[in-house]
Backbone:
């Protein structure tokens, strides 16, 4: 018997589950609204991007490229994507840009599909030294069944040992020389590595997921001018857009462009989340206007925060280089593999400060590392500056060095955050005349 439309009512159990999801979502929002979000891989989006992401586009398809679709009804989205490609080419100074990828890792899978065959050789930073999981056998590199060799690491400088990396590339002669990290404090001396890679016919791939906003803002390094043939990245870390990824190239070759586009669709994406793509386009427009100032303020805050932590008595890595030139700060809280980083992260969360434990050089166990990886990009986005970085460092010290009750510190964390509730470096309500949804 067919049930009359609209006559069915959810059971108490199913409705309670839905309500529980809504409550947990609200609680998560309150946690970050009242606390300090300092995970280096996260950010918040502007009000305009939020509205775009919640639009009707969330359920639509547009397989293919602008003007070459497999579905009808895509004319308006063609306008959006075409504008986004042009903006990405401008913001990243890239002859080629694909904005369809649904994440940084998906961008990496697409790039590796375009650049290498199963069984080909690749060189990359090991996860133990700060490389991303997609650069490892457990991630995209393994998915593509590539033969991985990892660079020797300079622990003091927190970067690949350049002479050793160049020697490895000349010895292995990989099809792809991959540069980039998840722990990314300083620009990589890319020209030297790229020269060695190109000498043996290797393609240079730079994963800029964490530092993409700093690159676009002109305050980190310029991989596409320093020898990278392809650059991948996330659209939601230091680049402050919605969840997603970018695939960029310095190549002017249309055949290579087609190869990269085909690697994304149909290679690794079918529907590529049109609402997120549209959100990226708005974020690109906002970044073109405000991104330089945002990127510079991130690095200024990160360096101030690192110095303030050191002054409080924390063991901040890379002291000899000034601690950091990115959005990230690394701190050590105990001996190798001691789990001190995990304990510190939990105590900070109890005080309303959200961070992540992280392996440091020497650690071998991801769940019991000795360190924390801290990011200031979200605090910068809501207007915090150098003075606030000093105050935040003091809050860390109260919890982790002076063993103050986290619940007491949490009150002061909330008081501090209450003064920083407006998202900056974006179009405001006066500039946006209205939304048709």
Residues:
């Amino acid at each position: 018997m067919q049930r009359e439309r609209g006559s069915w009512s959810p059971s108490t159990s199913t409705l309670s589950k839905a309500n529980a999801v809504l409550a947990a979502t609200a609680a998560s929002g309150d946690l970050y609204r009242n606390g300090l979000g300092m995970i280096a891989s996260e950010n918040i989006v502007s009000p305009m991007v939020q509205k775009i992401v919640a639009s009707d586009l969330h359920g639509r398809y547009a397989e293919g490229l602008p003007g070459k679709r497999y579905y009808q009804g895509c004319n308006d989205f063609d306008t959006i994507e075409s504008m986004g490609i042009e903006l990405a080419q401008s913001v990243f100074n890239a002859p080629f840009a694909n904005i369809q990828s649904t994440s940084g890792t998906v961008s990496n899978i697409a790039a590796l599909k375009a650049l290498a065959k199963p069984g080909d050789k690749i060189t990359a930073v090991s996860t133990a030294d700060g490389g991303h999981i997609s650069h490892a056998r457990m991630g995209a590199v393994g998915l593509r069944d590539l033969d991985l060799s990892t660079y020797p690491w300079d622990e003091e400088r927190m970067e690949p040992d350049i002479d050793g990396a160049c020697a490895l590339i000349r010895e292995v002669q990989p099809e792809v020389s991959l540069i980039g990290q998840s722990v990314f404090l300083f620009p990589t001396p890319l020209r030297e590595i790229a020269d060695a890679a190109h000498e043996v016919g290797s393609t240079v791939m730079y994963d800029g997921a964490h530092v993409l906003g700093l690159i676009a803002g002109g305050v980190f390094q310029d991989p596409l001018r320093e020898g990278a043939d392809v650059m991948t990245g996330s659209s939601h870390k230091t680049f402050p857009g919605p969840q997603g990824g970018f695939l960029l190239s310095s190549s002017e070759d249309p055949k290579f462009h087609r190869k990269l586009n085909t690697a994304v669709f149909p290679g690794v994406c079918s529907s590529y989340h049109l609402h997120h793509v549209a959100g990226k386009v708005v974020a690109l427009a906002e970044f073109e206007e405000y991104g330089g100032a945002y990127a510079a303020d991130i690095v200024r805050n990160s360096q101030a925060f690192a110095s303030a932590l050191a002054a409080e008595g924390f063991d901040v890595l890379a002291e000899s280089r000034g601690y950091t030139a990115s959005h990230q700060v690394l701190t050590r809280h105990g001996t190798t593999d001691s789990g001190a980083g995990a304990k510190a992260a939990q105590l900070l969360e109890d005080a309303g400060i959200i961070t992540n434990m992280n392996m440091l050089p020497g650690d071998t166990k991801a769940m019991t590392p000795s360190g924390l990886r801290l990011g200031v990009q979200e605090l910068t986005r809501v207007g915090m500056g150098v003075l606030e970085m000093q105050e935040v460092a003091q809050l860390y010290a109260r919890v982790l060095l002076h063993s103050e009750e986290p619940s007491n510190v949490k009150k002061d964390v909330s008081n501090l955050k209450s003064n920083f509730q407006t998202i900056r470096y974006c179009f405001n309500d006066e500039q946006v005349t209205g939304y048709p949804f």
Remarks:
- The chain has 14 helices and 17 strands.
- The mean pLDDT is 95.
- The radius of gyration is 22 Å.
